[in-house]
Each structure stands twice: as C-alpha cells, then as structure tokens.
Amino acid sequence: MNAPGESGWTPRMVALDIDGTLLKWVEDESTTYEQVPPAVHAAVHRVLDAGAHVVLASGRSPHGMTRIADLLDLRGHEQERLWVVASNGAVVFRYLPGEEIDVVVEETFDAAPAVRAILEQHPTARLAIEDRGRGYRVSTPFPDGELTGDMLVTEVEDLVREPVSRVIVRDPDSTADDFVALAASLGLHGTDYVVGWTAWLDLTPVGVSKASGLQHVCDELGLTSADVLAIGDGRNDIEMLGWAGRGVAMGQAIEPVREAADAVTETVYDDGAAVEIDRWFG
Predict the structure, then answer these.
(1) CATH: 3.30.1240.10, 3.40.190.10, 3.20.20.100, 1.10.275.10. Which one for 112-205?
(2) For residue 42, what is the enclosing H or E element?
C-alpha cells in the first residue's frame, strides 16, 4: 500500500463509491428510496469548502449517476462541474446539473468472445449494454430496480456487434460465488471483469477499473494517487482502494475489500463515509 502517514497529510481529492458508501436505502411506510444521509452530505460540502475535489466513482452507468450528483446540491461551489468515473472506470465525464454530460474518456472493447464463452456455461444469463441517455439494451429484461432507465430487448449478437464500454451479465438463478468461479475458469483473455454483490458480472476493457478512471482525473487536475482519499465497499472498489493514497473500506464490506484497504470505517448505516471524511475535514 502507498498510504501516507497521517502527520501533515490532507487529501486533495476524495473519491466516493455510490451504493453502500455515499448512498443508503431508506424505507418508510409507503416506499423505499435512495438517500445521501445528512451527515454525509454535510461532509462532502466540507471537502469542497476546503478547496479539495470530490469525485464520484461507481459501476453505475453515466445516466444513473447524474441524478445522484444532483442530490449533492453543488451549486455555489467552485466545483459545480463534478468529475464522475462511471461504468467501473470505462467512462469518465464532467457534469453540471441541468446540462448534458461532457465525456472526457470512454474505453471500449470487443465483448463478443467473452459473452459467447459465458453463455455456454450460463445460457439463461441476461445481458445489458448501456444505451446512453435512455437506459439499456438487454437480451432479457432485468429484475425490477436493478437497472435505471428504459430497457430495450435486443438480440445478443446485436448487443455485442460493435465495441462497447461495458457488458453487464446477470443470472438470478446463480450466486456471486458462482460468478467468481466462472470468471476465474474462463480466463477471459482481453477482457477484465468485476463480480458484484450477487450473480452480477461487469465485463470491461483490460486494465480498466475505478482506479484507472480516477488516474485520468488526477492527470487532468495535476494530482497523483497519493493525494487521494478513496472510500468504497464492493469488489469493484478493490483496485481503487489499493491505488489511492488512503483507501478506506466501509464497515459492511466483505473481507477481500477490507484487506485491500488501509483502514475500515463505520457502516453506511452509521455514516461511515462522513466519519472518515471528518478525520481530515472535520
């Protein structure tokens, strides 16, 4: 790890995962919804008030991240135009609420060989490709609530006919452990992958991760990884936590994520992101 000593070090960039880090699910009598907890919202604004950068880094697609950025209410800050790392690092863009996203980087790859290999072992798996600005093109509709936007059913060969930035593979009849074993057994030459919270597999270009996307942002801002505090809770955060000057796992993170981090904070339900941010910007 390249974690700095605490003495005299203050992050110049804070990279935040979204689900399970920045956001938590809240249930009331009539509905379930996503919320940036007030303590986390206030902590993010303290980072910005101190002149440091906040970057959102998620496996979500770009259009699934802009509404989360809106919840941060960045108007009035110099960093109104937010840097965002989407699709597990395959897309890096800037966003100002009310305007179109400004894509800075988009990495693509030929996903067809990997998709065919996966379908040989999981023929009922569902596939999704981002249809930017609308939703997703899918081989079969995904369970409710798992994708944002519209779903347009499309033949598999048409989904991967052209290079893509990411393929989502989902099999509700399998488990996350099944997909970990599947990805390891296939080899997936020329393709990287991340297994999600369930039987959910993201296929990405080789070498692309949240860490590589954040490196693009650092290059634009004249920073290095040593300047970055990164906080996350999922398997797709492992590279980011190891890359950052200080990588912090959320309290509910699984053991491989905790092992990749320099420290572990409280859970998302105990405002763990705010607890860590306030060590530096309290």
Answers:
(1) 3.30.1240.10
(2) helix 38-49
